[in-house]
């Protein structure tokens, strides 16, 4: 059953709490609303990563209800639905949510720090390339919310960029004269930092660097470079093009 919007500020569905105010607009939300409506090409290289995360969920989840936090172009929701998951999506961008609803996917406008989802209601949460966009205190609040909505024994699966140098993606706005990260990243993670934060709220099974190669979207030069990086990754040498995969359970 698709989520129906009953008013500009209220959403209802079988997994949701009874009502939820639309999230306030911030610069982060404005940035990603633009990307998710005007720059969907940005997500073309993410399919291998998203397919891999759904397969990991199939291996570890104790049921077939899956929540994805941050829908992007909706590829993960579609892939999970095709694999017979009962899929739910939460994202702050209204247009992205309406696009998923039109495809028959349950979806809510909402924020990770205040998920409009009932407690103890989902078996798996996927949260990929989200935590780097959050300030530390917001991430911790979000992890509390994830723990709340997971059933006992439920699993959180996701990824973040690995050891990103945030300054490398910093840009300058000549209008407001401010510097900002071009993708809105607030944090950088290595194994120790991510393990430390996750373990406050969940039982961590894995925090490990991985290198997902978007072969389909690469030209021959890109494939050659990716093959070299993949070789180094197999040898345990990871660079800033890698991700940190994490798997953690609610006890």
Layout of helices and strands, plus pairs?
Elements: E1 4-7, E2 10-12, H1 27-38, H2 47-60, E3 65-69, H3 75-82, E4 86-91, H4 94-102, E5 106-109, E6 122-128, H5 136-149, E7 150-161, E8 170-172, E9 179-181, H6 191-198, E10 203-210, H7 220-234, E11 243-249
Helix pairs in contact: 2-3
Please give a structural write-up.
This protein is of the alpha/beta class and 251 residues long. It has one domain (27-249): Rossmann fold, CATH 3.40.50. The protein is built from seven helices and eleven strands. It has helices spanning 27-38, 47-60, 75-82, 94-102, 136-149, 191-198, 220-234, and strands spanning 4-7, 10-12, 65-69, 86-91, 106-109, 122-128, 150-161, 170-172, 179-181, 203-210, 243-249. The strands form three sheets. A seven-stranded mixed β-sheet has the order 5-4-3-6-7-11-10, with helices on both faces. Helix 2 (47-60) crosses helix 3. The longest helix is centred in the last third of the chain and has 15 residues, at 220-234. The two termini are 30 Å apart.
């Amino acid at each position: 059953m698709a989520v129906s919007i009953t008013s500009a500020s209220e959403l209802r569905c079988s997994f949701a709490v009874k009502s939820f105010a639309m999230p306030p607009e911030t610069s982060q939300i404005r940035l990603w609303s633009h990307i998710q409506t005007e720059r969907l090409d940005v997500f073309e290289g993410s399919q291998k990563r998203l397919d891999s995360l759904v397969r990991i969920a199939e291996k570890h989840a104790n049921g077939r209800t899956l929540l994805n936090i941050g829908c992007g172009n909706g590829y993960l929701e579609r892939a999970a639905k095709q694999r017979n998951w009962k899929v739910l999506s939460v994202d702050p961008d209204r247009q992205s949510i309406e696009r998923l609803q039109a495809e028959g996917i349950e979806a809510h406008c909402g924020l990770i720090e205040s998920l409009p989802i009932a407690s103890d209601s989902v078996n798996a949460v996927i949260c990929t390339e989200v935590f780097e966009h959050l300030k530390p205190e917001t991430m911790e609040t979000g992890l509390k919310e994830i723990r709340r909505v997971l059933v006992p024994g439920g699993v959180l699966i996701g990824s973040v960029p690995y050891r990103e140098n945030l300054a490398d993606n910093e840009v300058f706005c000549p209008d407001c004269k401010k510097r900002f990260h071009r993708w809105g990243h607030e944090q950088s993670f290595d194994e120790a930092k991510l393990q430390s934060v996750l373990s406050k709220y969940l039982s961590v099974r894995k925090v490990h660097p991985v290198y997902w190669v978007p072969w389909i979207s690469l030209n021959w030069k890109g494939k050659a470079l990716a093959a070299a990086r993949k070789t180094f990754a197999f040898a345990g040498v990871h660079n800033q093009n890698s991700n940190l995969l994490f798997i953690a359970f609610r006890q």
